[in-house]
Write a structure and sequence with these properties.
Blueprint (H helix, E strand, L loop, with lengths): L14 E6 L15 E2 L2 E2 H9 L6 E5 L2 H4 L6 E3 L6 H12 L4 E6 L7 H9 L8 E6 L2 E10 L3 H7 L6 H8 L2 E3 L6 H8 L6 H18 L2
Parallel strand pairs: 1-4, 1-6, 4-5, 7-9
Antiparallel strand pairs: 2-3, 6-8, 7-8
Amino acid sequence: MAGTAARTSITGVDITGAVLAGGLSRRLGRDKATLVLAGKPLALWVAELLAPWVGDLWLVTNTPIRHMTLGLPMVSDLVANQGPLGGVRTALFYSRTPWVLAVSVDNPFLSDEVLAALCGRAAATGRPAVVCRSEQGLQPFPGLYHVRLLERLGAYLQGNLRVRPFLEKIRPDILPPEVAAGAEARSRCFFNLNTKEDWLTAEAWMTQRREISGE
């Protein structure tokens, strides 16, 4: 990949997109990336929402053979079973751009307003990451991470896999809850599909969306 220029996003900023799909899905009991939601694998919902905002777009996975049927470009985790931060580290390692926009594979309701706000900070911030704050606290994903975090993240993962303590250490640029448009958008933008009940909720939201749009 070296020596090949990465495509720019609609913001004009060089950003790599990373869909993090290396989790064990213990609570759901099955692979999330290939889980069908409203007729489409979950990973494809997320990738389609992320794609306009990035140039390169990868699925970061521990099980590339299982995910080949998705048709998405993939990179395998540098070290398996290091959680979402391990996926971020992998994306930073392979990135051809200064920034990586990382999202969870179980977040099919990403907000354009939030993604636009994150990408818009890439050229303006001096911090190594940009994340949002919601009513529930810091939200690491979707989040923007700079490649200069690669070495520091590798050292951190030697003894700790927890995400929020790492964010507190690196002092990211934090966008307030108002970046999501309206209470409904805020409640869904940071929704993660972790259980069968979450899947039923997501199916209901998708049905509601289709009824409103007339699809």
